[in-house]
Write a structure and sequence with these properties.
The chain is mainly α. It is built from nine helices and no strands. The longest helix has 28 residues.
């Protein structure tokens, strides 16, 4: 690794291999979390295997964790799988979701990409709907306290960093830049495989 002054922002070969190694380890952990989630949902083996294959290959996760070394994609997928496992564990069982796992996963998910707060909301809504069948929706909402704390902590860190980096309070770290969407852009991404 280069510890001296860098003249470029390019990733060095050792950094690339380190990210690949970490990403590959996370990929294995993600597969285990998805398998545990499927087991908790009492899915048969074929359905569980399909879920793992779709999660890994249907999302581009395999490529990001084994070739492109995109650690942000892999860490977001890990946080999603961990939050999904924690909420399913709580919604299927008679206990609250594991607070530490759910809170850390929600925090990491929002820190990696702030738009993933929508994924946290989607999983939380699924938890409340499922949990409300066996108890009350109010109780289910109370059991999501660690998820709410994780989102608040991540949002606070993100806003503080963006304030530091841009000099003003901003939700997006892109500053004044905007995403320019055109009709051809989404189609090119959707059919890029």
């Amino acid at each position: 690794l280069s510890w001296g002054h860098r003249t470029s922002h390019a990733i060095t070969a050792p950094e690339h291999w380190a990210v690949l190694a970490l990403s590959s380890c996370l990929l294995v952990i993600i597969c285990v979390l998805v398998a545990l989630t499927c087991e908790r949902l009492r899915l048969n083996v074929a359905s569980a295997a399909t879920a793992i294959l779709v999660f890994v290959f249907g999302t581009g996760l395999f490529v990001y964790s084994t070739y492109w070394a995109s650690y942000s994609h892999v860490s977001a997928a890990f946080a999603f799988a961990l939050l999904m496992w924690a909420l399913v564990k709580g919604s299927v069982g008679a206990t609250a979701p594991p607070a530490l796992a759910a809170g850390l996963a929600a925090c990491l998910l929002v820190l990696v990409r702030n738009i993933d707060v929508l994924a946290v909301g989607f999983l939380a809504a699924g938890f409340v709907v499922t949990r409300a069948r066996s108890s009350s929706a109010r109780k289910a909402l109370m059991e999501l306290w660690s998820v709410a704390v994780g989102v608040v902590v991540a949002t606070t860190i993100m806003l503080a960093y963006n304030r530091y980096a841009t000099g003003h309070l901003a939700i997006s770290s892109y500053g004044p830049e905007w995403f320019h969407l055109s009709l051809s852009g989404p189609a090119a991404v959707a059919f890029s495989y």
